[in-house]
Amino acid sequence: LTGAEVSFESYRKRLTAVIASKGCLTKYFDSWEIIEGLKGNPGNIQEPEKQEGFLLKRRKWPMKGWQKRYFLLEKGILKYSKRGAELKKGKLHGCIDVGLSVMSIKKKTKAIDLDTNDNIYHLKVTLSLFDDWVSKLRHHRVFRQNEIAMYPHERLLFHPSSHLSPNPNDSMRQLQTSACLKKKFHHKMGMNSSTALAFTVSILILPQLLTFICHPSLLDLEECESYLLELNLLLKSMEVLHRTYSAPAISLMVTRNICPLTYNPNLGPVHIQFLDLPDGSRPLVHQVSNESRASIPESMSEFFDAQEYQLTSSSSENEASDDDSYISDVSDSVSIDNGYSNERGTPLPPLSPPAGSGGSSVQVARRRTTLPSPQPSSSSVSLWNILKNNIGKDLSKVAMPVQLNEPLNTLQRLCEEVEYSELLDTANHTQDPYQRMVYVATFAVSAYASSYHRAGSKPFNPVLGETYECDRPDKGFRFIAEQVSHHPPVSACHCDSNNFTFWQDVQWKNKFWGKSMEIVRIGTTHVTLPAFGDHYEWNKVTSCIHNILSGQRWIEHYGEMSIKNTSSDACQCKVTFVKARSWSSTVNEIEGMVTDTGGRVIHTFFGKWHEGVYQGVPPSAICIWRANPMPVDQDQYYGFTQFAVELNELDAALKPLLPPTDTRFRLDQRCLEEGNIEGAEEQKRRIEELQRGRRKVLEENNVTHKPRFFKKSKDDTWLSANIYWEQRKNPRFSREDFPVLW
């Protein structure tokens, strides 16, 4: 199909015939259809005619609803603005490269989706114009792909508004180029780090500023503000770096006393150093051991004073540069009384030991530090063949090869959310209700930290009646979970401690959009603090895995989390998980505020959900929480944290205490953990067949499954029946009648 004159109906029939001849399935009128792109070798394709007019576009997050926008399709580039007159003046609201997007349509609702990997654009067309727009988009898409194929080194030249809508890949290339130049200048010209950063700023920011100065009509106000904001932040970073590297106290640093900090599991091995400063003061500085240093992102370096004079190289997997030696390793600032200090100067309570731990005398069980076998390659699995017929559908019902799994399941993933339970321990010992809310909100954010390195695989789906327990005396909590429903799939969990009670029931909905997969978690999380009678509730935010079919997969979380204390209306909290933008280098950022009943802001905090949370305002912000260091070889072992590595461990002492429905006894999951792919696939099919057989028996006898350890409340939430640990004492599980799950 090379001519723009070919009708949509003719194209549809011929495309259907081609796909059918290859033994593939195409979409039907009531479902999504992926539009195929350029076929065969590139050649001379006639430039298609322009197409323009008003369409409905779904508003970008966090807005809801649809808005009318004027679109112009020209040479494979789809631009839009409020009105046609604004487009002619160069005032664009957005620009989409149709050739580089996955395009899907749904004829029943007259919907068109364009997945650019960075954003998903949802469009709707009127009934009379739908076929015309789809036909033009097909031709422009093929034309654009042909141009890119013929002139791969000049692809930006074909983008009429590349300066208005920077491509994330191009931005990454710019960053890599600047990093490379910076390293060369380090080596050849002896530049210090702040000078090299200034050089980087000139490469990345100044061209956009010159465009703004010379042609102010080409950029809208929002983009200008973003460039100026980024420049301002970089200049602040340079100022901090200059102060740090020129600090006169470096040569005067003398260690007077070194004593172990009694309890702070977030920072690994920690020592406190008393440092002599020029003014005679002796502030405390945390010194984290090399193996447990958490990197501080480049975009956050401006938030801290240059009080810490011990400088080390810091690295972050989010940064494009692999030479981040100019970033100072910022540690927590603490006061003499071993507590944090907030922006008002009032001491915050120190971290308290876990409940029931007996202080530092807890006997910690020796746990494994690595998995039995590294992650096998999944290069032989074609995700496209699996997902192409499931655009816009819930993927929880789609069978996946075991190579795409990780050797943990959803119940164990729920347990990972309480890895940083010491934040709740601290909250239960904090008198100030506003500061308690900060700790609870930080705990809610920390639940997402373990997902950062896990975009490449999925957990096993629990079967109905499957259970999991995690008894951690060293952390002071006991956790249980059970799969309480199969259709829809619902997982319930409960965790109790002397300092808190945590419970939730969660239902997952997954949707595939061509290049990305969206994960929506339905359910409410609950936490109670017995010391104050507080009962906190909050919702989950949306997650999205990008580059599903090609490239490096990465995950982001975005949306607004509202936290309220149902026992008191003294304060509320809102945490915003910021969605990544193509024109900004910031990713994974969160912003939160605690307000009183009148809406007055009492506390603010910020950070990154995979690295740390900081309370206050720059430059006096303090670290509330920092993620634990990753194992050295985490990339070979599914990106597991140390806590995740321990979850599926089954030792001889624990085995007789567990019910036979515990996840640790799953054969498919155990085979995958040991590297036996064939055995894992065979056991997975057998376990799924057993579940179908049990469901058939229940349906034939008109019997409803009743969960063993959870019960449904009046408001349709699942609560613990409080019988698990009592039955485990004897142990009575060996005398109980359990279904055969595997």
From TrEMBL:
GO biological process, one term: bile acid biosynthetic process
Cellular localization per UniProt: Cell membrane; Cell projection, Filopodium tip; Cytoplasm, Cytosol; Endoplasmic reticulum membrane
Cell cycle listed as a keyword: no
GO-annotated cellular components: cytosol; endoplasmic reticulum membrane; filopodium tip; nuclear membrane; perinuclear endoplasmic reticulum; plasma membrane
Residue ranges occupied by any PH domain in the UniProt entry: 48-82
Keyword Cytoplasm on entry: yes
Protein purpose: Phosphoinositide-binding protein which associates with both cell and endoplasmic reticulum (ER) membranes. Can bind to the ER membrane protein VAPA and recruit VAPA to plasma membrane sites, thus linking these intracellular compartments. The ORP3-VAPA complex stimulates RRAS signaling which in turn attenuates integrin beta-1 (ITGB1) activation at the cell surface. With VAPA, may regulate ER morphology. Has a role in regulation of the actin cytoskeleton, cell polarity and cell adhesion. Binds to phosphoinositides with preference for PI(3,4)P2 and PI(3,4,5)P3.
Subunit structure: Homodimer. Interacts with RRAS. Interacts (phosphorylated form) with VAPA. Interacts with OSBPL6.
Protein name (record): Oxysterol-binding protein
Species for this entry: Oncorhynchus mykiss
